[in-house]
Amino acid sequence: MSALAEMIGPLLRVVATSAAARTIRGAATNATHRLMLTLGAGVGGAVAVLCFSSAALTLLERQMDPAEAWAILGCFYGVVGGVLYFAATRRRRG
User: Fold this and answer.
1) Which residue of 5, 14, 28, 94 has the fewest C-beta atoms within 10 A of its own C-beta?
2) Does 82 have pLDDT greater than 80?
3) d(CA 23, CA 15)
């Protein structure tokens, strides 16, 4: 019996190791996919903000002085940044 147990022990270790490696490989693949989707969303968001800013400046500069248009856009982004900051800190606290 002990010879059979000595033979099965290493086989069980090999099977357990390959199952663990498969699980780790799957987790790494999922993490890579999430990272790529997050990066894609970030790049898309940055492009959207740049396009929105350009369109807003074009429209505002037709109605008023370019300095006023930049000031309005700066205030808008300042308010949005403040709201996001306070939302993030409130979420962290409570």
Assistant:
1) 94
2) yes
3) 12
What b/e readout covers 39-75, taking b as 16+ CB neighbours within 10 angstroms? eeeeeeeeeeeeeeeeeeeeebeeeeeeeebeeeeee
Nearest C-alpha neighbor of 57 from the set 73, 76, 74: 73
CA distances from 90 to 32, 70, 77, 81, 84 (A): 30, 30, 20, 14, 10
**Using one digit for the tens of pLDDT, what is the confidence trace for 48-64?**
999 999 999 999 999 99
Q: What is the reported pTM?
A: 0.62
- Using DSSP's 3-state secondary structure scheme, residue 65 falls into coil
